[in-house]
Amino acid sequence: MTTAAETSTAAGAAGTRPPAVLQVLPRLESGGVERGTVEVAQALSAAGWKAVVASAGGPMVRELERAGAVHVELPLASKNPLVMRRNVERLTELIRREQIDIVHARSRAPAWSALAATRRTGRHFVTTFHNAYGTESWLKQRYNGVMARGERVIAISRFVAEHAASVYGVPPERLRVIERGVDFTRFDPERVSAERVIQLAREWRLPDGLPVVMLPGRLTRWKGHLVLVDAIAKLGRHGLRCVLVGSGNGRYRRQLVDTIARRGLNEVFQIADDCRDMPAAYKLADLVVSASTRPEGFGRVIAEGQAMGRPVIATDHGGAREILRDDETGWLVPPGDGRALADAIARALDLPQSKRLTLAERAIAHMRAHFSTKAMTDRTLAVYEEILFPEAAQLDPRGPVAA
After folding, report:
1. Which residues contact 47 (CB under 8 A, 6 or more apart)?
2. 102/384 Cα distance (integer angstroms)
């Protein structure tokens, strides 16, 4: 397959400008959508393409700009119809000014404005399904349906691809499965120093000698924090520390704190807001839990935990089934089942050291073989090439929809 760098070089030799891709999303804060956007922008810049991102801004803008990409601040997080209509004008102007070839929409509200702007300018339109969007009503399904209108529709897992095909009618010739990747320059246990782990343990005031069970995820109900609280209560062990890593305020946080207190687990649980050194956090943990009660499109925590060689317990639905090998690199449990989660936690914490090491080796090897950031960015750029240079591009050998 022709690489992006080779295509860009060929275009330059022919006297034409490098191809330009505009990615649009609501904000550049934290999360898998934002991380994937930055990683693709970095790959585009490294390949000699022009990378432009439009969003309402956020802390990841600096990282984007350090990679040589251009960020344009627009109110793309708004769902106000008047603002969205005005965003069509803004994006149309941006596309023409930056000579954009492809607009890649990663979220629904920006996608509606981007779709209209590409129609006005005659540019290509690509979308990414980051999850299985709900169908609560006809109006909601129509709103979500914009993500099915790309010339190419990228799904971040087979689970999401099947949803896009069955619910939104995306045909296989337009559908591409490109799993999220893990950055192994960051999530590598060999690269995380003992000093970083010790510093984080001090910051969180963790007692010495107690096993650490960690659940990373925003403080929202469907992330399953209450299921973990129930599981620890059923487990009946107080000689451990459970760290909930994620920010969030309001009613759910108060309910979570109250439930922990009511079940007598104040000495076991603590809430740590967003962590700036997640590789160190994973290495500090003896066990990583993803207890989501709704299916996730991929499951970044599950992937990163395995990449760091930690035992991982995840719920048995959605993208988790594609990332974690049950009883080989971790364990899958039924969603919302505190008893099953308690049993899995006991099994993981009681693993002999030799079996923990074997599991870690299998998990790391599995992630490196199938879920690297480089594979994700290479395949994304290949989709762009397929659109811009169909005579030179070759389809992924796994087919339009990876099996």
Report:
1. 3, 4, 5, 8, 381
2. 7
C-beta of residue 243 within 8 angstroms of C-beta of residue 213: yes
CATH architecture, domain defined by 4-181+372-388: 3-Layer(aba) Sandwich (3.40)
Domain extents in the chain: 4-181+372-388, 189-370
Divide the 403 residues of the chain into consecutive groups of 10 and give the mean pLDDT of each group: 44 66 94 90 97 96 93 96 96 98 97 98 96 80 92 96 95 96 94 96 94 95 96 94 90 96 96 91 97 93 97 96 95 98 97 96 96 96 96 58 46
Q: Please, which residues bridge with residue 182 across strands?
A: 372
pLDDT at residue 393, rounded to an integer: 59
Residues 6+ apart with CB under 8 A from 125: 102, 103, 105, 114, 115, 118, 149, 150, 151
Please answer whether residues 311 and 350 qualify as being in contact, where contact means their C-beta atoms are separated by less than 8 angstroms. Answer: no
Cβ neighbours of 229 (radius 10 Å): 23
Output the pTM of the full model. 0.87
SS3 state at 45 = helix
Evaluate whether 224 touches 252 at the Cβ level (below 8 Å): no
